[in-house]
Write a structure and sequence with these properties.
With about 270 residues, the protein is an alpha/beta fold. The protein has one domain: Rossmann fold (3-Layer(aba) Sandwich). Helices cover about 45% and strands about 15% of the residues. It is globular and about 65 Å long. The chain binds nicotinamide-adenine-dinucleotide (NAD). Nicotinamide-adenine-dinucleotide binds next to helix 1, strand 5 and helix 8.
């Protein structure tokens, strides 16, 4: 399928932890489309994850950066531009973590210290990345930035906990910064609202397997895979989507606009007669 859609383009992919990560698949997809990339993740993820394996598959440089540290991000931006010999064209923000979800602390009994960390890591980090890029003038005109979101930003999924609020903020930051970056440099900023996907972050959410199956049955096309998401991101980095910005784009097989589906109705009827 690759068509050299991103030939000559350079970018940073944040958040590839292992081969299940959406960022991992996106790195492979954009390189197959002709892009050159830098890979980045938090220092601890570089020690625990398998990013060096991906780096050799993608011929990419790996640069550590905690997405909550402006200094780390400034260093990353500088080093990436030096490595690529100029400005960048795209960035994927594929970063999420909630200490409340990790520690099984419920939404109504939240630890505010954890809550603030969730927002800092999973949402404010997008603002930080964009602010650092803008200040360093790291993106070419008509560059493209994509961050990954989830429909819990609009509708309640109880197990998603404080990540729902983080995603609502993330989508808002994409709109607000997209406005400013658009006028300043014609850079576009969008979020992709992805189906439930089996990854380290995804499976950490309470009851993940149930809402994975529910979404599969509700979506006319079924759940979108990480590979499909990667291809969609590659398209959003390409010149075919130059005029798309400040959008939250649902990449979910139709889940977001389905009220109820026949397989779900049939399940309920079966449950009644069982
Ligand atoms: N898996 C799903 O069901 C699903 C659905 C919709 C959206 N998303 C979103 O997709 C994105 C990627 O998640 P994934 O599912 O590929 O899981 P993943 O666990 O593979 O990726 C999450 C990444 O965030 C990184 N990260 C955490 N804290 C960080 C920090 N302080 N600095 C830098 N990086 C940090 C992790 O190291 C990891 O690489 C997340 O934003 C997630 O919320 C996931």
């Amino acid at each position: 399928m690759p068509n050299q859609l991103l030939k000559g383009k350079k970018g940073i992919i944040f958040g590839a932890l292992d081969e299940r990560s959406i960022a991992w698949k996106t790195a492979l997809a954009v390189v197959a489309e002709g892009a050159e990339i830098t890979l980045s993740n938090a220092p601890i993820a570089l020690r625990m994850g398998k990013i060096n394996e991906l780096a050799s598959l993608c011929n990419a440089k790996v640069i550590a950066a905690d997405a909550t540290s402006t200094t780390d991000l400034e260093n990353l931006m500088q080093q990436s531009m030096e490595h690529h010999g100029g400005k960048l064209d795209f960035m994927l923000h594929s970063i999420g973590m909630s200490p409340n979800v990790r520690k099984n602390i419920s939404y109504t009994t939240t630890s505010y210290e954890n809550f603030l960390k969730t927002l800092d890591i999973s949402a404010l980090s997008l603002h930080r990345v964009l602010q650092v890029a803008m200040k360093a003038d790291a993106l070419n005109d008509w560059g493209s930035v994509v961050a990954l979101s989830y429909i819990a930003a609009q509708r309640t999924f109880p197990g998603y906990n404080d990540m729902a609020d983080a995603k609502a903020l993330l989508e808002s930051i994409a709109r607000s910064f997209g406005y400013h970056y658009g006028f300043a440099k014609k850079v576009r900023v969008n979020t992709v609202s992805q189906s439930p996907t089996v990854t380290t972050a995804g499976s950490g959410v309470a009851g993940f397997d149930v809402f994975y199956d529910y979404a599969e049955k509700m979506s006319p096309l079924g759940n979108a895979s990480a590979e499909d998401c990667a291809n969609f991101c590659a398209m959003l980095f390409s010149d075919y989507t130059r005029m798309v910005t400040m959008q939250n784009l649902f990449h979910d097989g139709g889940f977001s606009f389905t009220g109820v589906s026949t397989p779900i109705v049939e399940d309920i009827i079966k449950g009644r007669t069982a």
